[in-house]
Amino acid sequence: MKFYGICVKDNFLGPQLGDRVLEEVEVLNRSGKFRGGQLVSQKSIPSSSIRGDQIAWVEGRQSVCGSIGALMAHIDEAVMYSAANGQLGDCVINGRTKAMVACYPGNGAGYVRHVDNPNGDGRCITCIYYLNKNWDVKKQGGLLQIYPEGKNVVANIEPLFDRLLIFWSDRRNPHEVKPAYATRYAITVWYFDAKERAEAKEKYRLATGQKGVQVPVTQNSKT
Fold first, then answer.
1. Where would I find the H helices in the chain?
2. Fewer C-beta neighbours within 10 Å, C or N terminus of the chain?
3. Containing H/E element for 147?
């Protein structure tokens, strides 16, 4: 995070819990819970021309999404550990969004180059967990490319099963999802910085919709 603003952790949950998360996401998909992804800005432009994913918002407390809730608790722990060890700079994490479960249906849909938080709405960290087994980007596409600001590099992140990606949500990390030609699943959550969030409330620059809904970070029950 200190050099490029990006961190990748493979084998994040392990195969057993990872499989259960994938099963819950597939159930959500089959049950028709997904809707077209919306844009906070560029409201005059059809969303489908910018992003082709279908999404569902999950809090993780529902019995049918218990494994997704366990995933969120593990991500909470990883983020708070990083914050406590100074790896997130001056960020003071005081909450996060619900989990955004996304499905690219495999028809060449992607997401054009963008910044998650271009206007200071309080989101400081983006965490993406991937659920795609035996993924081959040469055949199936779906590569995430990140362009760290001020760096002469491009980070190519393959959406591999049980991989967690963490990066800065602001203008430091423009990124895009290349067209996917097979069903591509990911779960994204954004963490809020207390100071920026408070300033955003003062200036009415909060993200609209679900991305603006703040929920508590899972408390570690260990003593």
1. 15-30, 66-84, 137-140, 194-203
2. C
3. none
Cβ count within 10 A of residue 16: 8
CA-CA distances (angstroms) from residue 136 to 25, 26, 119? Answer: 20, 20, 35
Residue 6 and residue 127: Cα distance in Å, rounded?
Answer: 10
- Tell me how long the chain is: 223
Helix, coil or strand: residue 184: strand
* Residue located via tokens 């603006």: 212
What is the amino acid identity at position 7? C
Confidence (pTM): 0.90
* Residue type present at position 44: S
Phi first, then psi, for residue 82 (nearest 5°) are -65, -40
CB count in 10 Å sphere of residue 47: 14
Per-residue pLDDT of the chain (223 residues; tens, 9 = 90+): 777 789 999 999 999 999 999 999 999 999 888 777 554 444 443 355 577 888 999 987 777 899 999 999 999 999 999 998 888 888 999 999 999 999 999 999 899 999 999 999 999 999 999 999 999 999 999 999 999 888 888 999 999 999 999 999 999 999 999 999 999 999 999 999 999 999 988 776 666 677 777 888 876 644 3
Rounded to whole angstroms, how far apart are CA atoms 72 and 129?
10
d(CA 157, CA 159): 6
Burial of 70 from C-beta contacts in 10 A (0-12 / 13-18 / 19+) = middle
